């Protein structure tokens, strides 16, 4: 392995684990939505599925598409700890092989972490609400279990983003004696 000047340090093990955990947070809710799209019983009455979600119908595409988009976005977190988050893969037209500017990754990831934290923090209180009239039987609890991991998506993305930024910031100028002059 050759030393590349100004190459960022590899991601620490905790950041890699957090990135993979972030990618996994969307799977339970995505599976629940896909089950709903296929018309499987997920707690909503057939009437609610038809009126509110247009299932069967155009709502199937929306609900299944939302699951796919959420998982694809969650998988981008892994790019913050892998080489393809530092250099664009060569197979991508026009920009393949170019280095990723750190702020091009940090700004969207940071804004995403904030937005996800705000969006999903409401599920922290899911079980404090006693009555959910849209759900029949134990489905309110099942939905809570499926959506609860999303509460972690934003904070995990935020932690990995901060680590990415710290690993990719410009090196501190040092004197010939090796002393850092940054404050």
Description:
The protein has one domain (13-89, 97-166). It has seven helices and no strands. With 183 residues, the chain is an all-alpha fold.
Number of domains: 1
Strand content: under 5%
- First-to-last CA distance: 33 Å
Content-based structural category: mainly alpha
Number of strands: 0
The biggest beta sheet reads:
none
The backbone outline, from C-alpha atoms, is: elongated
Radius of gyration: 21 Å
Low-confidence stretches: none
Name the helix and strand elements from N-terminus to C-terminus, one letter apiece: HHHHHHH
Number of helices: 7
Mean pLDDT: 83
Question: Level of helix content?
Answer: 40-55%
Keywords: Membrane, Transmembrane, Transmembrane helix
Transmembrane segments: 60-81, 102-127, 147-166
Attribute tags:
183 residues, mainly alpha, 52% helix, elongated, membrane, transmembrane, transmembrane helix
SSE topology:
Layout: H1 13-24, H2 27-37, H3 46-53, H4 58-75, H5 102-120, H6 139-147, H7 150-168
Helix pairs in contact: 1-4, 1-7, 2-4, 2-6, 5-7
Keywords: Membrane, Transmembrane, Transmembrane helix
Transmembrane segments: 60-81, 102-127, 147-166
């Amino acid at each position: 392995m050759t030393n590349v000047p100004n190459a960022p340090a590899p991601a620490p093990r905790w950041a890699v684990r957090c990135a993979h955990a972030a990618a996994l947070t969307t799977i339970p809710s995505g599976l629940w939505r896909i089950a709903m799209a296929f018309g499987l019983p997920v707690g909503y009455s057939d009437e609610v599925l038809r009126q509110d979600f247009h299932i069967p119908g155009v709502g199937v595409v929306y609900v299944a598409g939302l699951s796919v988009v959420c998982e694809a976005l969650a998988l981008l977190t892994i790019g913050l700890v892998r080489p393809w988050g530092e250099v664009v893969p060569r197979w991508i037209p026009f920009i393949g092989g170019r280095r990723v500017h750190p702020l091009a990754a940090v700004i969207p990831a940071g804004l995403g972490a904030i937005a996800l934290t705000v969006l999903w923090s409401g599920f922290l209180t899911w079980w404090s609400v006693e009555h959910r009239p849209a759900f029949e039987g134990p489905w309110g609890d099942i939905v809570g279990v499926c959506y609860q991991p999303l509460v972690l998506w934003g904070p995990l993305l935020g932690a990995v983003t901060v680590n990415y930024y710290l690993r990719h910031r410009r090196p501190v100028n040092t004197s010939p004696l090796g002393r850092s002059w940054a404050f």
